[in-house]
Amino acid sequence: MKKFTLDEIDHQILDILIDNARTPFTDIAKKLVVSAGTIHVRVKKMEEEGIIKGSTLTIDYEKMNYSFIAHIGIFLEKTSRTKEVIEELRKIANITVAYVTAGQYNIFCKIRAKDTNHAKEIIFKIDEIDGVARTETMISLEESINDKKRLMHSVFREF
Prior knowledge:
Helices cover 41% and strands 19% of the residues. By secondary structure, the protein is of the alpha+beta class. It folds into two domains: 8-57, Arc Repressor Mutant, subunit A (Orthogonal Bundle), CATH 1.10.10; 61-140, Alpha-Beta Plaits. The chain has a four-stranded antiparallel β-sheet with strand order 2-3-1-4. A hairpin with a 6-residue loop joins strand 2 (95-100) and strand 3 (107-113). Helix 1 (8-19) packs antiparallel against helix 6 and helix 2 (25-32) crosses helix 3 (36-48). The two termini are 17 Å apart.
């Protein structure tokens, strides 16, 4: 099977779409001095190859009063309960990310809340899940790095 490779135009398309996934193909085409059809074909090919998977919308949670972020390390009574616990965690909307991990915790989550009292309620919900032995919480003071482009450019250099 032939490996799909990206060229500089593909890199530039991805660069623009990472900034704003809703950028019209015509705007991208003008910026890159190619036809809108070229952009459409290249994006479609990257979707077919699985390089682009959907698009995302970035929400400013601070403007919605959900600026409190905490990371929760979850210790399970038995690792065999992992799938069941993950399914219960999915029911808690404030959990925005969850990883099954090797190391100190069995599961590591990121939550968003309105304030410390709201976070406490969420943590108590997690603690009540059957199979959870205990949790350990770390409060995020600031999100210092959240930059998809740096990794993307590093990956481009490998291609």
